[in-house]
């Protein structure tokens, strides 16, 4: 497989920053559909695909979300064109007959709560990473956040389901004036070992 070009690397990784402020430009339904259609192609174990997403865009839905946010995340969430609540389904295995039909993968997880929860979190987090890269690939900026009251978000947006929130991500076209300088990263030898 050939390497992607430098422009793509810059868009996905090298020039992309976490966004804290937004230009007044909408994010369309078509863009959200395109984002999901790219994200869903990333690999998960047994093709389990546990990620579930609520795209919060309406004034009414934002009014439900804002009281769940940490104080430092309220304004940037209020002004973001769309805020994605990225969750994962603890009963993802109910979809395995559809997603992994060549064997009885459902039996690997049903009735095994600890194993199912770990698998859902791990693979839902992978899909969350794909989500951010897919958004960047179609020209959207991202502001992923962990500053929210988990129980409130779950009660407000996932009530009556087995879905729980992983993280929240604002989406739109970022305001370059509000981007902070990139934080330092660990060097290869600080984070990696070749054995």
Work out the helix count.
8
Q: Which class best fits the helix and strand makeup? A: alpha+beta
Strand content: 5-15%
In the CATH hierarchy, the third-tier topology is known as: NADH Oxidase
CATH C-level name: Alpha Beta
Ranges where pLDDT stays below 50 over 5 or more residues in a row are none
Account of the protein in words:
- The structure is a single chain.
- It contains eight helices and four strands; from the N terminus they run ααβααβααβαβα.
- The protein is an alpha+beta fold and 195 residues long.
- A four-stranded antiparallel beta sheet has the order 1-2-4-3.
- Helix 2 (29-39) crosses helix 6.
- The protein is globular, with a radius of gyration of 18 Å.
Descriptive tags:
39% helix, four-stranded antiparallel sheet, 195 residues, 8 helices, globular, NADH Oxidase
Short description:
This protein is of the alpha+beta class and 195 residues long.
Annotate the secondary structure layout:
Layout: H1 6-14, H2 29-39, E1 51-56, H3 59-65, H4 71-79, E2 82-89, H5 96-99, H6 113-137, E3 141-145, H7 150-157, E4 163-172, H8 188-191
Antiparallel strand pairs: 1-2, 2-4, 3-4
Helix pairs in contact: 2-6
